[in-house]
TrEMBL record:
InterPro entries from the UniProt entry: Glutamic_endopeptidase (IPR053168), Myb_dom_plants (IPR006447), Neprosin (IPR004314), Neprosin_propep (IPR025521)
GO cellular component: nucleus
Compartments in which it is found: Nucleus
Name the UniProt record assigns to this protein: Neprosin PEP catalytic domain-containing protein
Ranges that cross the membrane: 38-57
Keyword Membrane applies: yes
Alphabetical UniProt keywords: Membrane, Nucleus, Transcription, Transcription regulation, Transmembrane, Transmembrane helix
Pfam family, one: Neprosin
UniProt organism field: Eruca vesicaria subsp. sativa (Garden rocket)
Residue intervals of the Neprosin PEP catalytic domain: 150-404
Lineage of the organism: Eukaryota, Viridiplantae, Streptophyta, Embryophyta, Tracheophyta
PROSITE patterns, per database record: NEPROSIN_PEP_CD (PS52045)
Length: 427
């Protein structure tokens, strides 16, 4: 009769059992090997538990937790407890609560984020969406993958408009329609955003500031469009999303980065859009961001100290869509960009960027008179200029991608035609 299998009751026991199996079982493991194994596993366990205790003790306690109707937990953290202040370049940083010379307005069309239906954070605190990562990851995660490795293993597709002829750019403003594109796999994403950039990608000196909406199931746990920001100072070798690492300093108690957007545009129906503005505060040196639907509310800023080539100004501004897909065996993805329709479909069918503006040195916003267009593969995603009195020079973008189902359908149709032709020849 075979002895009953031992039931391992703790992760340490399970780890020990797995290690013993790798050694060929208890009957083959020598006493010396087992003792060494126990010693190192015990040491590892003690170190992990010590790290957990350290992180737990250093993790600030929220002043309030708000339960969002979509299941999100929004922790209202004291403004001085936010991750940004852990950046080594910001140890003595004093938070700038309002932009210089800016009259702070409260967003009038409140409730355009789902969590706002359940309330807002008290003054002196900021909303931080609680992620599903472990406590250790929350403390030490840098989030951003190595850009070179990412591009080598995964596929990016862009449909963007850009301006880079101006020697100095101090900000941008744009209105972006919000949609809920379908992404093929949880690790894929689809976004619409504005970029400010300076420096070279080839020399790893690229600095960027990015903000917009994004559908990214593996990061956010669902397929809702969510607000996000991003930054890097070294061509994506470091930097991160939103508040997931030190960098962006949030000041608003009413807008949550990574919070879900409650409304989206509908095909041939009502259109919903948000406006994002980013500008350089010449007094503090910080790059501020405001967003909203009717009025713009300052959300926070990227401190000038964390940048190199963009510490003073940007040299390029870009607007548009981007998708990331995991299948690199050819351009085969059904991940949608924008509305999932090509740019040529136009208003109420395609996603758009409207009222494009660029800030000059005195921060005056000038309408963009002309811009260049780029689409990596126009059979997947397209971009098209347009002009109206209400929207100025603007553009539509997006597309359905190209997937295995479509390829299979084409192959099936060809096979039927060939078979039918063969039958006719025989007859």
């Amino acid at each position: 009769m075979r002895a009953p299998r031992m039931r391992w009751t703790t992760p340490l026991h399970a780890c020990f059992a797995h290690a013993v199996e790798l050694l060929g079982g208890l009957e083959r493991a020598t006493p010396k090997l087992v003792l060494e194994l126990v010693k190192y596993l015990t040491l590892a366990y003690v170190l992990i538990m010590s790290l957990c205790v350290t992180v737990a003790m250093s993790t600030p306690t929220p002043v309030l937790t708000i339960n969002s109707p979509d299941g999100d937990l929004i922790d209202c953290m004291k403004i001085n407890d936010q991750p940004a202040l852990h950046h080594p370049l910001l140890r003595n940083h004093k938070i700038q609560e309002t932009p210089t010379g800016h009259i702070v307005q409260k967003e009038e069309n409140f409730g355009w984020q789902v969590w706002q239906r359940s309330g807002t954070c008290p003054r002196g605190s900021i909303p931080v969406r609680r992620s599903e990562t472990t406590i250790i990851q929350k403390k030490y995660e840098t989030v951003t993958p190595n850009a070179a490795a990412d591009r080598a293993t995964r596929g990016h597709q862009y449909a963007t408009a850009y301006v880079q002829s101006k020697p100095k750019i101090y900000g941008t403003k744009a209105t972006i329609s919000v949609w809920d594109p379908i992404v093929e796999a949880s690790g894929d994403f689809s976004l619409a955003q504005v970029w400010l950039a300076s420096g070279s990608y080839e020399t790893n000196e690229l600095n960027t500031i990015e903000a917009g909406w994004q559908v990214f199931p593996s990061k956010y746990g669902d397929d809702q469009p969510r607000l996000f920001t991003y930054w890097t100072r070294d061509a994506y070798f470091s930097g991160c999303y939103s508040l997931r690492c030190p960098g962006f300093v949030q000041t608003s108690s009413r807008i949550a980065l990574e919070g879900a957007i409650s409304r989206t545009s509908t095909y041939r129906g009502d259109q919903f859009d948000i406006t994002i503005q980013i500008w350089k505060d010449h007094i503090s040196g910080n790059w501020w961001m405001a967003m909203g639907v009717v009025t713009l509310e300052p959300v926070g800023y990227w401190p000038g100290e964390i940048f190199t080539t963009m510490s003073d100004h940007a040299t390029m501004v870009q607007w548009g869509g981007e998708i990331l897909y995991g299948n690199t065996s050819g351009l085969i993805t059904v991940t949608q960009m924008g509305s999932g329709e090509y740019a040529e479909k136009g208003y109420k069918k395609s996603a758009y960027f409207c009222n494009l503006k660029i800030a000059e040195e005195n921060n005056s916003l000038l309408p963009v008179e002309d811009f260049l267009l780029h689409a990596d593969h126009q059979d997947l995603y397209t971009i098209k200029k347009s002009q109206t009195k209400a929207c100025g020079n603007h553009f539509y973008f997006g597309g359905p991608g190209h997937g295995p189902m479509r390829s299979a359908a084409v192959r099936g149709t060809v096979s039927i035609v060939v078979l039918f032709s063969a039958v006719l020849l025989v007859l």
